[in-house]
Amino acid sequence: MYRSLRATSLVPRLARSLRVQPTVGSVSSIRFISNTNKNLADDAAVQAHTPHKPDTDNYLDTLNTSELLGYGVIGMCTLSKPVLNMAIRAFPYTPLWMIRLLVYKNYCGGDTLPEVMKTGERLSERGIRNMMVSYTVEACDGKKMSVSIETIVGETKRSISELLVPHTVKMIQEAGIANINDIPPGYVALKPTGLIESAADILLHYQEPAYKGRYEQLVETCSEIIKVAEDSNLTLHKQFPGRKAPFIVAIVDAERNDLQQGVYKLQRDLFARFNKVEPTVVGTMQMYLKESTPNLAKEDKLARQGGYLLGWKLVRGAYIHTEPNRAVIHDTKADTDANYDSGIQNALANMSSEKPSVGHLVVASHNPNTQKMATDLLEKVSDKAVKANVVLGQLLGMGDNITYYLTKHRDVKNIIKYVPWGPPLETKEYLLRRLEENGDAVRADSGWPLVKGVAKTLWKRAF
Ligand SMILES: Cc1cc2nc3c(=O)[nH]c(=O)nc-3n(C[C@H](O)[C@H](O)[C@H](O)COP(=O)(O)OP(=O)(O)OC[C@H]3O[C@@H](n4cnc5c(N)ncnc54)[C@H](O)[C@@H]3O)c2cc1C
């Protein structure tokens, strides 16, 4: 149903405007990439050389006092590289109660589902009407966790039925049926290393006969969770027949690079099992990896052969600080940026072509140029099914200035925040990675500008 619906309402105009061949066949897909590389690289280079400075002055006004104080602390920690390094070194020794008091709420949705539901409502007041929820158990491959695998699987399933489904329905009802496709899906993130004991070993050795059974067990565990999403979609499509995107999407997170070959296999097996009709499963590609663009072409070919849809969350990649083999990552930030932008352009052209293999795209980034480019391209799309299946995402507590620009100045509706939730001890590792990420780029939403902005906003409120 989904494929035929898409095939009859295509937007070859976008493909033309992107100067990409609209027919992306299995063999020609490789040609497709190389033929268009120059144009795409040109486009990316143009945008990279014209940095976008969005009008974000008022974004702090939309935050409450406790959120502002949390950002004040982050601003202090990111005043300069040496201060940030000191904060990163001190972080593991900082007591949990202090972290919870100062910054936890800025980055994490809560310990329990009712708390995350409130976070969702708070986000909707800011124009962000859905979430990508992750029962966050960071770096759990082999490490001792404070919760069992059964708890992680159970809580992840509950986060679909008791959080994402009611929240999505509420958002649809508030927006009105006429605007049903303005509400982004609710996403449930699957972190492969949190879903089975000794996950890292399994992902590293999935091809070896000794690991076959354990790998299949991992696929089954993911499938058990995705089935909850699939069943919810079936019910909700009956209730809201005008919907052109899934209501709930399961999204496989990308991990550290040595595990990624196993993760690619896992997400491919899940695409093949669940994405015959609509893109219920979305995988992740880390565009800082040199292998990412060839990988996307390979997955395109396999999807066409297997008759299933791909869904992509494109990220730059979060493991640059810990990657032991720097050679796998693009040589420069500019190379990563150009590769990321061409990934978005190719995915959008594919979705708008006569025979799409990509059914869903999440542009997960805090980079203003990237998000502006994606929004500009999406404005040229008239196909409702394509529009409903492209969503922009930022992490809770990160890139709030760009989220504000997109919702307030560009009237973007297709936007979500990644909301980690769960046991505070486990979310500490997640918070550390966010702190490290704050040092990756000079941002208007960290350091001195943030401290100044917070102080100015609090002053305005007090007097
Ligand atoms: C909704 C959402 C989901 C996410 N899920 C995942 C996930 O599953 N897996 C994952 O790994 N990450 C994930 N991320 C994190 C994402 O990878 C980081 O947010 C991202 O790396 C930060 O980059 P940016 O796009 O915000 O842009 P920027 O701040 O412009 O870019 C910073 C990034 O550029 C790259 N970079 C920096 N310097 C260099 C250099 N010298 N050479 C080459 N590249 C460089 C690095 O990737 C760095 O993190 C997710 C982010 C979001 C918003």
Task: Please describe what this structure looks like.
This protein has 463 residues and is an alpha/beta fold. The protein has a single domain (2-55, 106-438), classed as TIM Barrel (Alpha-Beta Barrel). The protein has helices spanning 2-8, 12-17, 28-49, 65-77, 81-90, 96-107, 113-125, 149-175, 199-204, 212-239, 260-274, 292-306, 333-351, 368-379, 384-388, 400-409, 424-438, 447-462, and strands at 130-135, 186-190, 248-252, 281-286, 310-315, 358-364, 390-395, 415-421. Strands 1-2-3-4-5-6-7-8 form an eight-stranded parallel barrel, surrounded by nine helices. Helix 3 (28-49) packs across helix 13 (333-351) and helix 5 runs antiparallel to helix 17. The protein is globular. Converts proline to delta-1-pyrroline-5-carboxylate. Belongs to the proline oxidase family. Keywords: FAD, Flavoprotein, Oxidoreductase, Proline metabolism. InterPro entries: FAD-linked_oxidoreductase-like, Proline_DH_dom, Proline_oxidase.
Give a brief outline of the structure.
Its EC number is 1.5.5.2. The protein is of the alpha/beta class and 463 residues long. Helices cover 54% and strands 10% of the residues.
Q: Mind sketching the topology for me?
A:
Layout (H helix, E strand, L loop, with lengths): L1 H7 L3 H6 L10 H22 L15 H13 L3 H10 L5 H12 L5 H13 L4 E6 L13 H27 L10 E5 L8 H6 L7 H28 L8 E5 L7 H15 L6 E6 L5 H15 L3 E6 L17 H19 L6 E7 L3 H12 L4 H5 L1 E6 L4 H10 L5 E7 L2 H15 L8 H16 L1
Parallel strand pairs: 1-2, 1-8, 2-3, 3-4, 4-5, 5-6, 6-7, 7-8
Helix pairs in contact: 3-13, 4-6, 4-18, 5-17, 6-17, 7-8, 8-10, 10-11, 13-14
